[in-house]
Design brief:
The protein has 295 residues and is mostly helical. It is 70% helix and 5% strand. The chain is built from eight helices and four strands; from the N terminus they run H-H-E-E-E-E-H-H-H-H-H-H. Strand 1 and strand 2 form a beta hairpin.
């Protein structure tokens, strides 16, 4: 590694290339959130757009757009533009005739999620959660795919974005459990005492298990947020690191090798983008099913 760094520094000094030490800054610039969207020399500056900020306790909430927010909104609009017209068309078509083309593919995907993900994991009343699970999947999937376009902006590579999605999933899970179990049943998901336990041991069990059960609730959204963030961040960091070698060494051999490696990684990233959206949606349905059937 030291040889590579020294060689990169020598090449940078002799040819005017990017120094090896600036490679982390190059990666950070393209991954981190910001006020500028760059594409083939075009710069869209978002800093001139301001929305009033407000306070929630000691927290200042600023809704002024950043590039991650722009692509989150774009993913949400894409979901609306695809599924709202499709839902209207599905209600008007003849039920005896199967849909064709794109609508047929989307209906197959929706039915797969309903029959293979939502119903097996949530059980009775699962169909009511199908729209939410589908929305989670497609919203995350579109954000992941935007990061594979030449724009290269991945909102799910931002921990704040994945944490917000995990908090939404956590709220839906806990509210679903409260409605399904009632106040007393929901309380037992935190204050756990096994049936048949002697009376003298119940305080001991509560003292030990209550913190464990409470932390167990918090680790689920934490795992959702960190898993999605880490996978998307790692993939794009690797892609930018390999591409950055072109600017460091400025050689045809390095450029050809970098492009070849990045092409293979991009194919893998397409699979990872789909897989991570699927895992987030599947685990959300698993968590809802677990708390609704806490016994």
């Amino acid at each position: 590694m030291r040889f590579v760094q020294e060689h990169g520094q020598e090449a940078a000094e002799s040819s005017g290339a990017m120094p090896f030490s600036e490679l982390p800054e190059f990666i950070q610039h393209h991954i981190a959130d910001g006020k500028v969207i760059e594409f083939m020399g075009f710069h869209l500056d978002l800093s001139s757009i301001h929305f009033p900020s407000f306070q929630i306790g000691a927290l200042t909430v600023d809704l002024s757009p950043t590039r991650h927010l722009v692509f989150m909104v774009a993913a949400a609009l894409l979901c609306i533009l695809i599924f709202v017209p499709m839902a209207r068309a599905m209600t008007k078509r003849d039920p005896a005739k199967a849909p064709r083309g794109f609508m047929n593919a989307m209906e197959s995907l929706i039915l797969y999620f309903r029959d293979e993900v939502v119903r097996p994991n949530i059980g009775h009343g699962a169909d009511a959660y199908t729209p939410f699970i589908l929305t989670v999947f497609f919203f995350i999937w579109f954000m992941n795919l935007f990061g594979l376009t030449p724009l290269g902006v991945t909102a799910t590579g931002n921990l704040s974005v994945t944490a917000a999605l995990a908090i939404i999933a956590f709220i839906v899970t806990e509210v679903s459990g409260f409605l399904a179990l009632g106040p007393a049943g929901y309380a037992r998901t935190v204050f756990y005492v096994p049936a048949g336990l002697p009376v003298m041991l119940r305080p001991v069990m509560l003292l030990i298990m209550t913190p464990v059960e409470f932390l167990g609730k918090l680790t689920k959204p934490f795992a959702l947020a960190v898993r999605l963030f880490a996978n998307m961040m790692a993939g794009h960091t690797l892609i930018l690191a390999v591409l950055g070698l072109i600017f460091v060494y400025q050689g045809w051999g390095i450029a050809a090798g970098s492009v070849l490696i990045v092409s293979v990684i991009m194919i893998l990233e397409l699979f990872v983008a789909t897989l991570q959206a699927y895992i987030f949606a599947m685990l959300t349905s698993v968590f809802i099913g677990l708390i609704r059937h806490a016994h």
